[in-house]
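C-alpha cells as discussed.
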C-alpha cells in the first residue's frame, strides 16, 4: 500500500526535480540562511522558523533597511528569483540566478547599502528601471512625468500630460496610469495620501474626480477645464 501524501507537500511538487537539495534543508528560507552562514553573509535572519515554512518551502523573505527581500523558486529550471521591495510600493530591482550562493550574496550586498548601479555591476542578473533609479536619486516625480510624456503608449494623453506637468500645482503630483485612467498621486511615498483621477469620456472630453470624493465627478470639455477642475479637486483633501 502506498503511504498517503498530502497534495500540497513539496514531494508532490513537479519542481522537486530541480530543488531536491532545497527540500532536504527544509525549504528555501533555511537553505538561504545556511548558504549565508557558510559564506559569512548577513541576511538579517539567524535561523528559520520551522512553523512558517510548513507549506512555504518554495518562498523566502528577508528584511532590509530599504524594504523587504522576496525570493521564490522558478519553474522549469533551477532559478532563484529575487525581488527587492521598497517601503513605498515599488520594487527597487529584480532578477534571478540558478546559483543559491550568488542569490545570497546579492541579497547581502543590497543589505549592506549598495546602490542600484553597484548591485547590477556586481550581479548583472539584478536589473532595475529608470524610475527605481529616480527614487534612489530623489527625483521620482520629475522622472515619472518625463517617462509618461515620452511613452508612445500614452500618445493620446501627451498633450494633457504636458499641460498638467507645466502647472505649478499639479506638476508636483506623481502621475501614473491604471486601467487607462490617469491618476495623480499627492505623495509618491504614501499610497494613502490620495489621488486625482482623469479619464476620457465617450463625448470627447474628460471626467475629473478625486479619491476623497469619488462620487463627485466633473465633466470637462477642454484641457483648460481639466486643469481648473483638477486644481479644485485638490482642495477636497484639505476641506
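Sequence:
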Amino acid at each position: 500500500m502506498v503511504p498517503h501524501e498530502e497534495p500540497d507537500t513539496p514531494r508532490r511538487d513537479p519542481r522537486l526535480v530541480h530543488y531536491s537539495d532545497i527540500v532536504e534543508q527544509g525549504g528555501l528560507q533555511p537553505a538561504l540562511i545556511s548558504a549565508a552562514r557558510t559564506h559569512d553573509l548577513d541576511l538579517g535572519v539567524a535561523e528559520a522558523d520551522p512553523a512558517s515554512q510548513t507549506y512555504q518551502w518554495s518562498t523566502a523573505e528577508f528584511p532590509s533597511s530599504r524594504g523587504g527581500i522576496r525570493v521564490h523558486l522558478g519553474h522549469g529550471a533551477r532559478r532563484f528569483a529575487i525581488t527587492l521591495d521598497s517601503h513605498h510600493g515599488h520594487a527597487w530591482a529584480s532578477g534571478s540566478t540558478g546559483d543559491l550562493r550568488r542569490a545570497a550574496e546579492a541579497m547581502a550586498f543590497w543589505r549592506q547599502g549598495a546602490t542600484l548601479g553597484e548591485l547590477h555591476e556586481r550581479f548583472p542578473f539584478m536589473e532595475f528601471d529608470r524610475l527605481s533609479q529616480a527614487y534612489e536619486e530623489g527625483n521620482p516625480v520629475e522622472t515619472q512625468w518625463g517617462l509618461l510624456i515620452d511613452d508612445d503608449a500614452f500618445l493620446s494623453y501627451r498633450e494633457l500630460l504636458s499641460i498638467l506637468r507645466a502647472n505649478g500645482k499639479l506638476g508636483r503630483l506623481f502621475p501614473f496610469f491604471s486601467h487607462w485612467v490617469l491618476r495623480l498621486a499627492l505623495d509618491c511615498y504614501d499610497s494613502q495620501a490620495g489621488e486625482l483621477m482623469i479619464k476620457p469620456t465617450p463625448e470627447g472630453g474628460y471626467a475629473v474626480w478625486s479619491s476623497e470624493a469619488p462620487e463627485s465627478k466633473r465633466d470637462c470639455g477642454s484641457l483648460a477645464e481639466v486643469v481648473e477642475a483638477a486644481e479644485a479637486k485638490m482642495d477636497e483633501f484639505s476641506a
